[in-house]
Amino acid sequence: MSDTTAATGPSSGYRIRRPLTTAELSVLRDRIDTAPTVQDLLVTVVVGVFGALLADLGETVTDRSPDDRIDPRQYAIPQTQWQAITAAATNRANAFGDAVTLALELTNLMPAVYDNPAVPVPDLTGRDHRPDQYRLEFSRDVGDEIAACEAHLTALAGQYGTGSATYRMALDSWHRQLASLFSTRLGAATTVHRDGPLSFTVVTEPGLVYGVIFHGQQRRCTSGDCHAVADDTPPGSAEPPAWRAAHTGAALLDHEHIPTYPFGAPQPGTWTSHS
Questions:
Q1: Pairing of strands 209-216, 219-220
Q2: Which residue of 48, 98, 179, 235 has the lowest C-beta tally within 10 Å?
Q3: Where are the alpha helices (DSSP H) in the chain?
């Protein structure tokens, strides 16, 4: 495989900038497909890529000492190859349920990229390493909370309309979180726990823990000069809603506050995930 823009030395801005050869990619693909653990997989990719590039300089990865580490920014491969290699590695990591962690590590450790449309996208596709069976576990209270989330969406649709941005943003965010629970890229088993109103904690088989949290909008006064906020009063309370300053020192004007959404109406918001 040739590259008319490949260059070596200071004039290129890199020590080595070239595509990997077909033979180098073939060896790397085989080693990725047989890596026994996600840690071995990470080493396989990093050593395989940099080993090939360093060979041009008569060097090896093992020549390096802890005080003379490889700087990935000094090397570059075509973007098409970079993407194919990381895709093959994360596909293999699906077998260990740790594709997300591996992808983040590779982003930090892989060489830089450059654009060269003449370099084709290599076929590094191995077998599908996702588990054949996937188990999703949750308790009865989680099922009840999922139903509460659906009821909240129904209430938003009734209050603001199914075509409103308020409803669409909430619906889309909830569907993204639900879909992620059925992803087999996080191992063969996932457990969901209730974590307060409309929110959950998700624990995956490899040990990744993240929260699915409903972030409700704070009710605010619509006057641009007034920084008042208010919550709903408790059900059955005869007390009027209490407005307060959004934070210490915020302007709380003496006027009739007009809320961003009505009292007693379902709270707008979206669901997001946080590790």
A1: unpaired
A2: 235
A3: 22-34, 38-54, 79-93, 99-109, 140-160, 165-181
Query: Whole-structure pTM over 0.90, yes or no?
Result: no
CA separation, residue 152 to residues 156, 162, 218, 269 (Å): 6, 13, 16, 10
Residue 48 lies in a domain: yes
Count CB atoms within 10 A of the CB of residue 99. 23
Query: At how many degrees (to 10) do helices 79-93 and 99-109 cross?
Result: 150
Tell whether 186 and 71 lie within a shared domain. no
Residue 83 tokens, joined:
């993407």
The per-residue pLDDT for range 19-75, each reduced to its tens digit, is 999 999 999 999 999 999 999 999 999 999 999 999 999 999 888 777 778 899 999
Q: Work out whether strand 75-78 and strand 112-114 pair parallel, antiparallel, or are unpaired.
A: parallel
The candidate with the shortest Cα–Cα distance to 75, out of 12, 121, 22, is 12
Residue 126 located in a structural domain: no
Q: Are residues 76 and 178 in the same domain?
A: no
DSSP letter at 117 equals: T
Q: How many domains does the chain have?
A: 2
